[in-house]
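Budget justification aside, the reviewers requested a transparent look at the raw inputs and outputs of the sequence design task funded under Objective 1. We therefore reproduce one unedited record. The lines immediately below are the structure tokens for a 232-residue chain.
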């Protein structure tokens, strides 16, 4: 899971700006989600309704936001707050990641993510052979410089990618931010969430792109599910 954000490199506390997630149906924290068309796909289990437990980070348009990964526990219950441990934490699953934003129509703590979402970045396989996020402590994305000021959810997702149907695992969290600056862009294209198709080739990875033994142009050109990236 991604309970910690970094704003221009400054590390937050656990759940300081990330909405806390509930236990899944089996009673575990951060276990993978296959709910492509249901509520947990938006911000994680139960996290569309935990905005009042979370602060809101200020970030200037054009700045970098990072989401730091912590390992799940194989014991039922909530994972206890702890310091980052490079020996066990970080992104341990092979696969891509993406980030989206959605502007709240009113109070951010009441917003359930049922509005329009636009994509701001994808972490793919830039060398055509290895996933860029592999063994990294976090994934970083730039808030487009022309993003209009306001209150937003920033949603991160990471896939433990698979070439077998409906076996790709998804890990999702949402941070609450207030974007500052004088941006006057029009984000888009936009989508509603949930809304992924498990047969999308960005989720159900074609066998030719899975674990190549040499650089693959197909993998280098990986396009995640969802809309095109808005760069501002």
């Amino acid at each position: 899971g991604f309970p910690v954000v970094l704003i221009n490199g400054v590390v937050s506390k656990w759940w300081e700006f990330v909405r806390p997630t509930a236990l899944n149906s089996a009673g575990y924290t951060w276990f993978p989600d296959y709910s492509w068309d249901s509520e947990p796909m938006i911000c994680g289990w139960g996290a569309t309704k935990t905005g009042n437990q979370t602060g809101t980070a200020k970030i200037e348009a054009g700045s970098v936001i990072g989401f730091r990964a912590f390992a799940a526990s194989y014991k039922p219950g909530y994972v206890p707050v702890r310091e980052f441990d490079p020996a066990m934490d970080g992104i341990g699953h092979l696969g891509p990641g993406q980030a989206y934003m959605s502007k709240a129509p009113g109070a951010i703590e009441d917003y359930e993510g049922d509005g329009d979402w636009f994509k701001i970045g994808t972490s793919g396989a830039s060398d055509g052979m290895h996933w860029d996020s592999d063994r990294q402590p976090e994934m970083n994305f730039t808030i487009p410089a022309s993003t209009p000021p306001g209150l937003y959810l920033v949603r991160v997702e990471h896939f433990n990618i698979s070439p077998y149907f409906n076996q790709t695992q998804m890990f999702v969290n949402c941070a609450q931010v207030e974007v500052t600056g004088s941006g006057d862009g029009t984000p888009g294209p936009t989508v509603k969430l949930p809304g992924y198709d498990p047969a999308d080739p960005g989720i159900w990875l074609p066998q030719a792109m899975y674990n190549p033994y040499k650089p693959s142009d197909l993998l280098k050109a990986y396009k995640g599910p969802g809309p095109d990236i808005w760069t501002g």
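The chain has a mean pLDDT of 94. The first helix runs from residue 40 to 43. Computational costs for records of this kind are itemized in the attached budget.
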